[in-house]
Sequence to fold (406 residues):
Amino acid sequence: MEALKVSTDTLFILLGAIMVLAMHSGFAFLELGTVRRKNQVNALVKILCDFSLSTMIYFFVGYTVAYGVDFFAGAEKIAEKSGFELTKFFFLLTFAAAVPAIISGGIAERSKFNTQLIATAVIVGGIYPFFEALMWGKWASASDKPIMLQAWLNDTFGATFHDFAGSVVVHAMGGWLAIVAVVLLGARTGRYPKSGGVTAQPPSSIPFLALGAWILAVGWFGFNVMSAQTIDKISGLVAVNSLMAMAGGTLAALIAGRNDPGFVHNGPLAGLVAVCAGSDVMHPMGAAATGAVAGVLFVVMFTITQNKLKIDDVLGVWPLHGLCGAWGGIACGIFGPKSMGGMGGVAFGSQLVGTLAGIAVALIGGAILFGILKATMGLRLSEEEEFEGSDLTLHKISATPARGGW
Fold:
């Protein structure tokens, strides 16, 4: 029976890993549909290469930083228990690789490819697993470790920071790293003319954008439900809460965005980002409210970011992942307690402090990383290369027969 349980757990988490791996195609098509046609090939290449590099870096470095576990042993040893530990690595890798995929959307159309790959290696090998170790990994539960934030939160507020599926650990981390890169990179040429105003650079393909959103939304149920990691901990509550947040985010974005298809298809993603943290403890009504707030938050802050702050975050990854992820961490502390119909075991103070800690790690780490890269290698393409487009400049081919792919 024990062998059967281990094998079942391995299959369970493997299916989750495959579903989240499929989400990366959603990142690719969401970016492809949002950028101009002369940058579509680059969008596809970036996501695949970022994931592949993340796999190597997380296997050899990042997973050890986060959990103190390595695979420098014979295959017979590491394949014990049906290879559960290897499959767990695969699952958590897909989370780690989501961080550079998030950043990719913010810096699209004008970033250097090789510089982005270097940033991916540093993020997946160091910045992300450091925070992962604090909240989920080797420093998360032991009070005798050198960094014991979770133990302090538990002593201070009566509960540790709760982030079941990564609203803060994954999404806010990616979104706040991205905003640093976007600001240091600067806006796309011509986006904000010196004469004032904003030059529209509309999505190249609403169907591809919608396809990306749908792939992400479906894969998200592996992202959230399989975060239980073993079959005995699976909960239908997580699935239904994810569904309710997705629906709430969609409808809220529909209303706040006045039927704009770009907002409508990012609405479910905003809701799903926000519900990750508390999907295992909220009541479905709380999850719906969390998603609805996230949908409005994305629409409002995307508009402010682009038009008032004049920050050229192409896919709106800071409002979508950074702000909605932070909201999700805090919302877990609002809707998770039993007084709000939740399962309990969470504290608002811990959720607030843990969320702020994630933002701080991302901002500090991002400022150091992207600041050094800007000073040494440069972050962006030349004006001529940007005008020509990333596809022809970097990959020598366009997505369409017409040269330039406008």
Summary: The chain has one domain: 2-395. The CA atoms of residues 22 and 216 lie 8 Å apart.
